[in-house]
Amino acid sequence: MTIKETFDRFNKLNVLIIGDVMIDSYMWGNVSRISPEAPVPIVCVNKKENRMGGAANVALNVQAMGANPILCSIVGDDDGSKMFFDLLKKQKLSSEGILKSKDRITTVKTRIIGNNHQMLRIDEEVENSINNKESDTLIFVIKKLINNKKIDVIIFEDYDKGCITPILIKTIVTFAKQKNIPTVVDPKKKNFMSYSGVTLFKPNLKELKEGLKTDFDHNDNKELGKVVTGFIKKQNIDTALITLSEKGIYIHSKRAKALIPAHIRNISDVSGAGDTVVSVAALCLALKLSSELTATLSNLAGGLVCEKVGVVPIDKKQLLDEAIALKL
Q1: Residue scoring higher pLDDT (326 or 251)
Q2: pLDDT of 219 strictly over 90
Q3: Which of 8, 100, 115, 319 is most deeply packed, by most CB within 10 A?
């Protein structure tokens, strides 16, 4: 099968995405002077923009690759949620898996960008876990969607904002196994050790060290391999995909252990790159592509979005062109 045929097959996939959704709000402007009130730059705003972020950015990446994303999450019952539902509608994405909570606020991250550089970020959020009733309702909705639709892969997109709980993880991973649906995780610190039995686990280096509460020389491939081997064996995980920033990506499974080097890029902004990597990796997993090809395509995709300012989804044609140029 050619890489072009592989990319065409992405179009037939349904991807269930569970996790913390948010709004990425941007204020763009120019900086030409320092404030007389404090030693800080003055940004003269000339553009404002709201985008879907967090797990919703994973949905945008999945959609950009041609597949059909189905989001499952909890938002507040506030102005932020109204904005979020408007963004879903604008993007032609279903809201059937999104619940509202009167006890929570919708996460909004506002980035102030001056002269194409991020100057400041303001976060509006709650980080406490959803309550038992909300968790039970979300589990019910997720199971219903899995039963009623052909789901090819499930992504847990965890931002430690409380939507994903250990009981939700255990219940859905068990249910997915019964249905032979692969599961992919983009973890954070809080639930790091709760994802036993998932198919593919994708932390970055910082998350791996924090999650395992250990430090090691990540420049030593043998040491990195040893740490990952012990972790996936203990957690009964099939494949680990570790993003290593400028070093590239490390794939570790029963079939392959390889460090895929990063391509030289003009890096503008790394925010959102992890969302892109997990999206492409999940689609590759759904098609049962090889570990090496999964890692290589995910690595390429993550690098490409870093060339853009702000959180933006992958450009499928650009990724395909690079993959063809590399003779993948």
Answers
A1: 251
A2: no
A3: 319
In a domain, 156, yes or no: yes
Active site residue 275: yes
Structural domain including 282 reads: 3-19+56-68+128-325
Please give the backbone phi and psi of residue 287, each rounded to the nearest 5 degrees, phi first: -90, 5
At what angle are helices 79-90 and 55-64 packed, to 10 degrees? Answer: 10
**CB neighbour list of residue 188: distance below 8 Å, 6 or more residues apart:** 158, 159, 160, 207
C-alpha angle 158-162-167 in degrees, rounded to nearest 5 = 85
Q: Could you tell me the pTM of the whole model?
A: 0.92
Residue 250, φ and ψ in degrees, nearest 5: -115, 120
CA max distance for the chain: 63
Catalytic residue, from 86, 275, 315, 321: name it: 275
**Sign of the four-CA dihedral 9, 11, 16, 22:** positive
Tens of pLDDT, residues 78-89: 999 999 999 999
User: Is there a domain that residue 117 lies in?
Assistant: no
Structure tokens at 152: 């090819």
Question: Is residue 73 domain-resident?
Answer: no
With contact defined as beta carbons under 8 Å apart, do 185 and 274 qualify?
no
- State percent of the chain over pLDDT 90: 81
Residue 218 pLDDT class (50, 70, 90 cuts): confident
DSSP 103: T
The model's pLDDT over 25-73, given as tens digits with 9 standing for 90+, comes to 999 999 999 999 999 999 999 999 999 999 999 999 999 999 999 999 9
Burial (CB < 10 A; 0-12, 13-18, 19+), residue 270, is middle
Evaluate whether 235 touches 274 at the Cβ level (below 8 Å).
no
Asked whether residue 108 is domain-assigned, the answer is: no
Domain count, the chain: 1
